[in-house]
Each structure stands twice: as structure tokens, then as C-alpha cells.
Amino acid sequence: MKLKEIVVLGGSGFVGSAIVAKLDAAGYSVKVLTRRRDVAKHLLLLPNVQVVECNVLDYQALNATLRGADGVINLIGILHQSRRISFNAMHHQFPAQLAKICADLGITRLLHMSSLKADKNAPSRYLQSKGMGEAALWTLQDKLNITIFKPSIIFGRGDAFINLFASLIKLLPAVLLAKPNAKFQPIWVEDVATCFVNSLENTDTYGQTYELAGPKVYTFRQLVKQVMNTLNLQRPIIGLCDKLSYAQAFMMELLPVKLMSRDNVKSMEVDSVSDKPFPAIFNLTPTPLEAVIPEYLIDETPRGAYDRFRQNAAR
Ligand SMILES: NC(=O)c1ccc[n+]([C@@H]2O[C@H](COP(=O)([O-])OP(=O)(O)OC[C@H]3O[C@@H](n4cnc5c(N)ncnc54)[C@H](OP(=O)(O)O)[C@@H]3O)[C@@H](O)[C@H]2O)c1
User: Fold this and answer.
1) Could you read off the pLDDT of 259-291 as tens digits, one per residue?
2) CA distance 257 to 252
């Protein structure tokens, strides 16, 4: 192992926690940067992990915190923008600045999380900003060894997407579904984490972009139906036309808790599906959704109850 200290930005989150656990198990010394140490407290038990509070948008502080690292993994991302924080700031300007700081400090290895169908001409601001972030990184490819990952939606214990629909199905007599024919190719969080960790020191992955998509394509309707089947709770699914999909999202934007925005609906204008086979370099057969979601949707163990508590408390 040539790289020793790896800094993970966004390591406290759903995907980050899975990646950090695998880095820890592989023996790397891992530094997780977070805005609030308490949101990353589940990582403190891992023997090789250090959690450091840092406002990553304070570039002087970021520079000081990254100094001495051998590699950086950037997972920071938001699904909804607010008046204070924009997609452009988090997905475009921030990775561009992060890459410059890495280059200045001589940290040459950078792994970056984008999204399937991210492109500057994509229909949603989310996908556009992710696409512009990718383009900004490639301008520094002569100084950095960059690898970019573009997953479809990611499922696994603690995910936002499958768990949200499980909660709605339990709560409501029917599901009013935006964009019911939008397509997804869900990928398991542990498979995503394996790809990140395996690429870290694999020089063949330098300068590459990898689409990460699971073994099966689902329409949004089929995905919700799969969650119902897993829970053994059947509800009518009422698919909304485009106009009503946007109207529903507009109403949801007015709620204090953001469930879905018009920008999320715009993201579904393009199918989140890969036309490439799973990248052979990772020597991995992606895990089907059906094999994993029962483990956490109908988990009656204390761990399952704790996860649901965290989910409900948005922690
Ligand atoms: N989940 C999916 O289905 C999916 C699919 C495709 C791509 N992705 C991408 O994968 C990445 C991780 O997603 P996730 O599902 O793990 O998200 P998550 O659980 O919400 O975690 C996001 C992370 O980003 C950090 N973050 C958010 N806003 C921030 C801000 N204003 N300033 C600094 N840090 C901020 C958080 O760090 P702290 O709270 O610790 O500061 C958190 O650890 C994102 O880039 C996302 O776009 C996810």
C-alpha cells in the first residue's frame, strides 16, 4: 500500500460511511471532514478513522486540513438547493477549488463522486452542476490522477430513496407517483464503496470515468411496487402526468422537509440507466436490489429500529 492517509469529504453521509468503513478495514488512515462531528459519530468506533470538523468552503481551513494527505475522496453533494447553498457552489465551484488545492499541495490522487447522466446540457440543475464539476476537474488532469464515478440511484441500509418510499407506503392509502415511467438502474452502496476503494491505488483507473449501475433496470413504478412487495403492503400507485408531476413537486417544495423538488423531476426527464456493461476493472458482479432491501426494510433487530429512528430524525 503506497497511499496511507486518505481524506474523505462527505464521509459522514450514506455512501461516505460505507466507503470509510471499507477504507478502515483495508488499513488506510482515514480523515473524515464534516461540518458537525456528531453526525459522524458512528465512524468514531472505527480504529483507523479520525473525524475532523471543517468548513470545507473556508478554503484556507480546507488547505490546512488536507496538508499531508496522500489521497482525497470527494463525496459532497446536495439533492436540494436552498437560498444559502446552490448546486453550482457544491457540485461545480467546490470540486474545482478542491482540485486546485490538491494540486497546490502535491496531493495527486483524487476520487470524485458525480452522478449518472450528469452533463452540462442535462435537463436539471443538479445534473448540470455535476457535469460542470466533472469538466472543471479534467482541466487539472495534467497535475492530478483523477477518477470519477457516476452512479445511478444507490440503495442500501440508510438510503434516502427506498426508505422514503417505504415510509410513504406505510403512511398513505395510495402513492401519487411523479414520472412513473422514468427509469433507474439502482446500485448497492457496498458495490459503489468497493469500486472506490479498489480504484484508489489502481493506476489503470487514473483519468477514467466509470458509470456504476446495477444488474436491472426498473421504471419508477416498478421500483415502488418492489418496495410494496418487500413490505407486503399493497397500495394503489397513481402515476401522474408530467404537468401534475411538476405541480406535486412544487407543492412539496413548500413543505419544511424537502421530499421532492421540480429539479428532481427534471432529473427524471433522462433515464438514469447506463448503456455500458459494469466496469470489468472492478471484477465485481453488482448485487440485485431484491437481495438486499428486505434486510433493512423489514429489519426488526435493535439495529433496524435504531436506523429507523435515525431516518425519522433525519440524522
Ligand atoms: N445516494 C444516491 O442515490 C446518489 C446517487 C448518485 C450520486 N450520488 C452522490 O453521492 C454523493 C454522496 O451521496 P449520499 O447519498 O451519501 O449523500 P448524503 O448522505 O446526504 O451525504 C452528503 C455528504 O455531503 C456533505 N455535505 C452536504 N452539504 C454540505 C455542505 N453544504 N457543506 C459541506 N458538506 C456538505 C455532508 O457532510 P457533513 O454533513 O458531514 O458536513 C454529507 O456527509 C453525493 O455527491 C451525491 O450527489 C448519490
Assistant:
1) 999 999 999 999 999 999 999 999 999 999 999
2) 8
Tens of pLDDT, residue by residue over 139-190, are 999 999 999 999 999 999 999 999 999 999 999 999 999 999 999 999 999 9
Q: Which residue has its alpha carbon closest to ligand 1 atom 44?
A: 77
Mind listing the pLDDT tens digit for each residue in 75-106?
A: 999 999 998 999 999 999 999 999 999 999 99
How far is ligand 1, taken at its centre, from the CA of residue 250, in Å? 23
Residues 97 and 136: their CA atoms lie apart, in Å, by 9
Cell numbers linked to 254: 413548500
Give the number of the atom of ligand 1 that is nearest the alpha carbon of residue 56: 33
Helices (H) and strands (E) in the chain, counts: 12, 13
Q: Are 150 and 8 in contact (CB under 8 A)?
A: no
* Cα–Cα distance for residue pair 149/127, rounded to 1 Å: 14
* 77 alpha carbon – ligand 1 mean position (Å): 4
Block residue for cell numbers 468497493: 194
What CA–CA distances, in Å, run from 90 to 14, 206, 245? Answer: 17, 23, 26
Which stretches within the chain are classed as H helix?
Answer: 14-25, 59-66, 87, 94-105, 125-138, 161-171, 189-199, 220-231, 242-253, 262-267, 289-297, 302-312
Structural domains in the chain?
5-154+187-212 (3.40.50.720), 161-183+216-270+288-312 (3.90.25)
Give the dihedral sign, CA 249/241/125/15: positive
Distance CA 130, CA 122 (A): 10
